[in-house]
Amino acid sequence: MKLALATAAIALGLATSAPAATIVTIEVAGIQNTTMAITGGVETFDTAGGYNSPYLASFGGSATSGSFDGLLTYGASIYGGAGGTGRYVAVQNTNILTLAGAATDYFGLWAASLDGGNTVAFYKGGVLVDSINLTNYALDDSYKSNPTTPFLGQNAGEKYAFFNFVVTGGFDEVRLIENGGGGFELDNVTVGTTAAVPEPASWALMIGGLVMVGAAMRRRKIALA
Question: What is the pTM of this model?
């Protein structure tokens, strides 16, 4: 179950608060992994220590792989660490994830201790596809405070949420950006592929095709009569 906060508005006929290039959904408060059906894997960073440059990501041994240019990790605390254990990433300026192989369309992460500088930017072939500030989304009070034992209820002034991004046209690079003076705490970075919502032009083609099929079926019925 998840809360949909932005969609491809033209294709679905819904209001949007983010660029149409990306469909953004947020899992219910307390959920720290995606509930979407994707083909891919999760990077937990639990085997990382301190500063890693570069950091090779296997995403749980899935077919997806990539490399971060550099990562600073900490042990689980009130500020981050999915499940209250292991390690998490704290972005200070910008960390870049470059994917190996073909472009993909799904990206997800558990964002902890959210602040106004936390931004995710997607690139394809060196060209910016979309840039999204996570605090553009109005999360209610159920997202406040760390939801994990042994830090349950602590750091009540900040919010924790798992974000799903489906990027129309795909991406091969992700930039995790902290624009303020704090940190961008994150964990359970997930990369993969999913059935993305078709672009408006694709919807028009599909609707046109259905109309043609319907007309052909009507002509067949008339001929048989």
Answer: 0.80
